[in-house]
Structure formats: C-alpha cells, structure tokens
Predict the structure.
Amino acid sequence: MSAETDLLHIDDQLTDSERLIRDTVRSFTADQVLPNVGDWFEAGMLPRSVLTEMGKLGLFGMHLTGYGCAGVGPIAYGVACRELEAADSGLRSAASVQGSLAMFPIWKYGSDEQKEQWLPLMASGAAIGCFGLTEPDHGSDPASMRTRAVKDGPDWVLNGTKMWITNGSIADIAVVWATTDSGIRGFLVPRGTRGFTARDIHKKMSLRASITSELVLDSVRLPASAVLPGVTGLRGPLSCLTEARFGIAWGVTGAARTCLENAVAYAISRTQFGKPIAGFHLTQQKLAWMSVSLYQAQLLALHLGRLKSAGTLTPVQVSAGKMANARTAIDIARTSRTILAANGVTLEYPVIRHANNLEAVITYEGTEEIHALALGQALTGISAYR
Ligand SMILES: Cc1cc2nc3c(=O)[nH]c(=O)nc-3n(C[C@H](O)[C@H](O)[C@H](O)COP(=O)(O)OP(=O)(O)OC[C@H]3O[C@@H](n4cnc5c(N)ncnc54)[C@H](O)[C@@H]3O)c2cc1C
C-alpha cells in the first residue's frame, strides 16, 4: 500500500525476505502485467508467456519444498499472492491453481516417480497443471460427483465431465478427481491422452484474464501409475482447497488495495461543485471505512499466516479468512467504483476489472455460503448443509 493509504504500516511486520518477495512481484507486475492486463481482460485471454515468467520468478509451488520449489514460508507465499492479485485476480488464480491445486496434491500424495516427473517442470513453469473437481451438476457438493474411474485389468478407465477448470485447455497435466469402488481418488491425466479433451468456456464476465475450461473424459485409459497413491476420499481435494484458500485470503487484499488506492487518487484529482470530491464528507466516510476494512483483512491474513507457520492452521480458520476477506474485497471494489462513477465502469481504470473478478473469487474454492456453513458448524456443532 502507498504511504498515503497504509496508515497502519502493516508491512512493517514482514521480514526482509518477505519484503523482497513483495518488491520482486510488484516490479514484475508493474513491468509485464499492468501495461497490458486491461487489454487481456477485454480480449478474454492470459498469454502463456506470463505463466512462463511467473515460473522463472519461482512463484509456482513456492511454499513447497524440494523438486525445484522455492520452499518459502506461508507469509511469503501470501505476500506473493497479494501482489499478484493487486494486478489481477486471474494472475493469482493461475498461481493458486498451479501451486496449491495441481502441484500440492502431487507433492503431498504422489509417488516418487510422479513427483520427479512433474514437480520440477511445474515449478519452473515449463509445465502447467489444472485441478478438475467441479462438474456441471456438482459444485458445492463434490462428494456427489459423477466422474467415475473403474479398474480394467491393471489400468483405470475414466468417464465424466469437469466444468469451470482454470487453465484446463493449456494444462500439460490435469489432476482429475473421480469416484472409484474404494472412494474418491486423484488421477494424473496428461494432455493428449486419448479420449481427454478440454474446451474453453467463453462469455465469462469475471476473471477474463484467466483461462477457464470444460474437461471431457470419454473412456480415458490410464495406467495404474496414474493414480495418486497417498490419498483416498474427499479429504484429498479438500486439503488442496485449504491450501489454495489460504492464498485467496491474502490475494484479495491486493485487489482491494488497488481499488482503494485508485479511489483515493481519483477523489483527490476529481473536482465537482468547485472542490475535489475527496473534500466531501460522504467520500471521506467511504474512504475511511474502506481503509479500516482493508487493515482488518490484512491483519486477518497475517494472523492466518502466523498460524500456518506454526503448523496449527485449521480448515475452518481458512474458511473464516477466505469468506471474510473475499467479502471485504468485493465491498471495497464496489464502493471504490462508486467514487470513480462513470470512469469506474471503464477498463481505463482497474476498479471494475477487480470488482468483476471478485465475483468469481467469492464463488470459487467454496462459495461464501459454504464457508458460512463451515463456520456455523464449528460454532454450533450443528451441520446445516442438508
Ligand atoms: C472462474 C472460475 C474458475 C474456477 N476454477 C475451478 C477449478 O480450477 N477447478 C474446479 O474444480 N472448480 C473451479 N471452479 C468452480 C467453483 O469452485 C464452483 O463454481 C463453486 O464450487 C460453486 O459451485 P457451483 O457454481 O456449481 O454452484 P452451486 O454449488 O450450484 O451453488 C449455487 C448456489 O447455491 C448455494 N448453495 C449450495 N449448497 C448450499 C447449501 N447447502 N446451503 C446453502 N446454500 C447452498 C451456493 O452457495 C450458491 O450460492 C471455478 C469457478 C469459476 C467461476
């Protein structure tokens, strides 16, 4: 945050190496993303070369150890997510999917061969991964998925459809979750496998600088070595989502910060009724509440980072962070948009892009309602899912 808006100096809590990561990602986005991201959003694309650069910077799987991963702590990972999302939620989504949803299951549950084959390539950005859990008819309730894997001799044969899959059509390797006779299992499906196709979803009005695809598995035959050996059941994909949601709790504070900074700068420079709109009480009240909400979100993210560093972070704590911070961020984006008024609806400013992106962010990786149910159950001991 700039000196004008970071009144609490929360980044003073960061270590020198965390600040170095912050500054490195900021300078990458300033040079290679911000000049173009409005055009990418308008065109509905994210160049593959950006992912290559992110890999070169060590941003993929950076919180994992070994296999070419950077092995940084949770707060450093969170700071990187924040700075990527300060540019665009699509960029942070790409890093979240690659590191937490595609690399993490291989790192945590994969065989030695799977790890050695995929993790170094994915850490460097030479290979891209995706995570296929959601289906056309099963989003919040993945346990009801229809994608099925059956044994045929030593092989597995998969049939089903996965929907809304980030990076699906550009992925070299898809981590696909399917039901089997023994429960949900994860499968590594390389691009080009016979019967496996990916088709992009168009007409999206959110996360436009991000690729979203449908995956079709039509009698896809995989060797026994394609299954992730280390996990059975829904806890496999849910553990990956907990990793990724931690990054979202941090990331959205970046999007919110960008919106607030733009709102402050615009309010100071825009004159109506003979004075800057920043001089009106109503505008200052909006700015004051947005800044305080942002500080609260930043402190919550930092607290989660400290819990994760201590090894005590629980899924429900991550739900609290994802739910609260995504809501705070979208509220800040929408209020900032009102300060920019008509200019707030054009891509000449980043605010409407962030506001639109955050519509997907409050939905994916567990909707706001699903996280509320997780918290409600933790608070009351009563499950209200059904
Ligand atoms: C841009 C984008 C990228 C995505 N990337 C991925 C990806 O890479 N991989 C992947 O697997 N998925 C991905 N998703 C899918 C995302 O995780 C799902 O959209 C999300 O889980 C919600 O599922 P749904 O859209 O089917 O909504 P539904 O589950 O149909 O929910 C519809 C509404 O009902 C509410 N609801 C559902 N159940 C309950 C309940 N018990 N009580 C109260 N309310 C309830 C929901 O909160 C929501 O408001 C992505 C989605 C988007 C938009």
Summary: The chain has a mean pLDDT of 97.
